[in-house]
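ok, trying the design again with the full structure, not the truncated one.
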């Protein structure tokens, strides 16, 4: 018998999928960790589960309590599913620039959702800081604090990393993924380096994010912008601190859109925008390393969360991003 214990038991143990069209084109094995197959539909189910479980273990979250979080969407979706399954309430603060699909889904799932203007991190009304303030003013509530709560990266150190190691039988040359909180990148990179320090760990970065310049020069420089959601950072979060990074690769939206459409048309995979950045970086890395290498990245979430933007041809055309195919 192979039966998972409820929603919580179904988180993780996702397949590792060979991305056939890009693997064949580059001569490398480009493998995607299928995090969109988590029960809440994204990589963030893992962090959400660890954050809630750790708060329970520490006695911070008591029956009937509320989990408060500032999130671009997927963490909130994961948290709300788990709160429902465990009898907690969920309050989500989300920037109004995020896709309507994610905002509607959060409401449907039962979260209390407050949309707020998107302002930089240094502003006291930034959605992350606001969520922390609101949580501190409530009775029997915790702030999930995914950016700086190390339960997030521990989820990936203890689950995603070991799964990738086992699924590849340790035959992995490189790990590359973009970061939002950095939990996925850092947790997996720390685990893989502990197994084999020769595994190349590379940060993928969209335009408008400062990590590419940080890895290359030690300074955070923000240039341009991106239509992708949930990734990119203007600071080094606690989850990213101390994470090994051998290199960084920047991928622009044209390449990300091309990759996402090829994944759909040639591989049958319907993916969100951050996957375009991740796989775009894996392709660039394959070209750097040459044929015969195994490169692992993340398929963070599915395309249905972005139908009104990334999969809306008029929306893409207005931004000069319509793919050739
Ligand atoms: N892709 C998407 C679509 C996301 O929502 C997130 C999380 N914000 C990420 C990638 C990055 O994951 P992490 O927070 O672990 O860096």
């Amino acid at each position: 018998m192979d039966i998972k214990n409820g929603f919580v038991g179904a988180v993780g143990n996702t397949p590792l999928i060979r991305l056939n069209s890009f693997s064949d084109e580059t001569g490398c094995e480009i493998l995607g960790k299928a995090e969109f197959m988590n029960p809440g539909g994204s990589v963030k189910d893992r962090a959400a589960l660890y954050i809630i479980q750790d708060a329970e273990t520490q006695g911070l979250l008591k029956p009937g309590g509320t989990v408060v979080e500032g999130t671009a969407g997927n963490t909130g979706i994961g948290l709300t599913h788990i709160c429902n399954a465990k009898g907690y309430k969920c309050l989500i603060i989300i920037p109004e620039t995020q896709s309507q699909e994610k905002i509607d889904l959060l409401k449907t799932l039962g979260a209390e959702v407050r949309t707020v203007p998107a302002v930089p991190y240094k502003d006291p009304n930034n959605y992350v800081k606001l969520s922390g303030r609101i949580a501190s003013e409530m009775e029997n509530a915790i702030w999930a604090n995914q950016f700086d709560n190390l339960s997030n990266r521990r989820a990936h150190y203890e689950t995603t990393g070991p799964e990738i190691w086992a699924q590849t039988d340790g035959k992995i040359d490189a790990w590359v993924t973009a970061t939002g909180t950095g939990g996925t990148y850092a947790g997996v990179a720390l685990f893989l380096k502990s197994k084999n320090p020769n595994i190349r760990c590379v940060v993928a970065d969209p335009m408008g994010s400062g990590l590419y310049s940080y890895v290359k020069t030690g300074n955070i420089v923000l240039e341009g912008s991106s239509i992708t959601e949930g990734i990119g950072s203007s600071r080094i979060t606690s989850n990213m601190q101390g994470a090994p990074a051998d290199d960084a690769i920047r991928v622009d939206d044209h390449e990300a859109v091309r990759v996402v459409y090829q994944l759909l048309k040639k591989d049958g995979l319907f993916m969100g925008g951050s996957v375009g950045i991740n796989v775009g970086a894996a392709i660039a890395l394959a070209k750097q390393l040459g044929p015969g290498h195994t490169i692992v990245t993340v398929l963070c979430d599915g395309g249905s969360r972005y139908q009104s933007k990334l999969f809306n041809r008029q929306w893409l055309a207005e931004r000069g991003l319509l793919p050739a195919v």
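Keeping the full-length input from now on. Residues 151-167 form the longest helix (17 residues).
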